[in-house]
Amino acid sequence: MIAGGLMLGATHMLYEGTPDNPGPDRLWQLVENHKVTVFGVAPTGIRALKSQGESWVRKHDLSSLRVLGSTGEMWSPESWRWYFEEVGGGRCPIINYSGGTETSGGILGCFTTEPIRSCSFAGPIPGMDADVIGQTGGSRRGSVGELVVRQPWVGMTQGFWHDPSRYLETYWSRFPGLWVHGDWTEIDEEGYWYIRGRSDDVLKVSGRRIGPAELESAAAAHPLVQEAAAVGVPDDLKGEVVHVFAVLRQAYVPSPALAGEVRQTVRERLGASMQPDGVHFVRELPRTRNGKIMRRVIRAAFLGASTGETTALENPLVVKDIAALGETHRNGQPSEAP
User: Fold this and answer.
1) Per-residue pLDDT tens listing for the chain (338 residues)
2) Residue partners of 335: CB distance under 8 A and separation at least 6
3) Where does 123-200 sit in CATH, by number?
4) 280 - beta bridge partners?
5) Does domain 202-330 have CATH number 3.30.300.30?
6) Does the N-terminal or the C-terminal CB of the chain have fewer CB atoms within 10 Å?
7) Which residues contact 229 (CB under 8 A, 6 or more apart)?
8) Those residues with Cβ within 8 angstroms of residue 102's Cβ, 6 or more apart along the chain or in another chain
9) Does the N-terminal peptide bond of residue 93 adopt cis geometry, omega within 30 degrees of 0?
10) Are 175 and 158 in contact (CB under 8 A)?
11) Chain-centre distance of CA 88, in angstroms?
12) Cα–Cα distance, 291 to 301 (Å, whole number)
């Protein structure tokens, strides 16, 4: 990004630090002071700043902005709309972008010349022959499937360092000749693309497969929930049930009654079968330093299993809080509030 931008004559501005220090308007102050035109931020940053209220944004002149950028994880519709309206003034396109280190760039993106729908991607970026397929390998539209790439691309990874067999197992073993990226993706009837979560995170509840992003967006629709993560927990009757871990907006106190409200919000949006069996409030969610929520770690900690390596987490102490909630739950006690 830096090399390409400089080669095209752009000026880059890099800021190191947290977005809320010395105040929740730190990023908006930078935009105003330096006349930033293209501004990029992860959805997790917007969720955190959104919880501080609109006044911090509106006190700054953001008229220099032309384009908003986004990458790192999935959007919720409410956060996407806030970013579009409050930061971009309802006039700046949000260029959603998704790829990975192992692809040496992006797979899906938005374009300033193409229509954009909330939380969506316009489609594959130039040079990427991407598709969404079902379990038999055929293209799928209108429902969730695996994101794959059908042809080689310039930045394709050639292998893992000293471990070629693991590379083949990870990306090439499920569908011969297709690179399987590991993202649960959907193309709707109008051709917009949506990433629904990691395919190894997908939940199967009462026979229906659902991406965690749909459940998390439903939980975050409750006005007091800042962000949420959904994981599946084994169940003798349903096979798997949903447990939601939610971070509340500042100044709100967890309670069993509030947990019931969040469960009802999910039920109203997704149906009775998707109502979470448990809602647990945490101070923050375990995430990597680039902002990705680690659902695998949440699930393992809650079930009392090994979480594996956690040193890459930005906040590894959060895992202990989730493990304590899991122990309380296994002992048959309510665990809605920490």
Assistant:
1) 788 889 999 999 988 888 888 999 999 999 999 999 999 988 878 888 888 889 999 999 999 999 999 987 778 888 899 999 999 999 999 999 998 878 888 999 999 889 999 999 999 999 999 999 998 889 999 888 999 999 999 889 888 899 999 899 889 998 989 999 988 899 999 999 998 877 766 777 766 777 787 888 899 899 999 889 999 888 776 778 899 999 998 878 889 999 999 999 999 999 888 899 999 999 989 988 767 788 889 999 999 998 877 777 888 888 999 999 988 888 776 555 44
2) 278, 280, 325, 326, 328, 329
3) 2.30.38.10
4) 245
5) yes
6) N
7) 212, 216, 244, 245, 285, 293, 295, 298
8) 157, 171
9) no
10) no
11) 21
12) 19
| Gap between the Cα atoms of 64 and 305, Å rounded | 50
CATH of the domain spanning 1-92: 3.40.50.980
Residues 6+ apart with CB under 8 A from 323: 301, 302, 304
CA-CA distance, 320 to 338, in Å (whole number)?
A: 12
How, if at all, do strands 239-248 and 278-281 pair? parallel
Instruction: Please state the pTM of the whole predicted model.
Output: 0.73
Domain with CATH 3.30.300.30 in the chain: 202-330
DSSP code of residue 116: -
Cα separations in angstroms, 78 against 12, 39, 50, 261, 296: 29, 19, 10, 18, 25
How many other β-carbons are positioned within 10 Å of the β-carbon of residue 28? 23
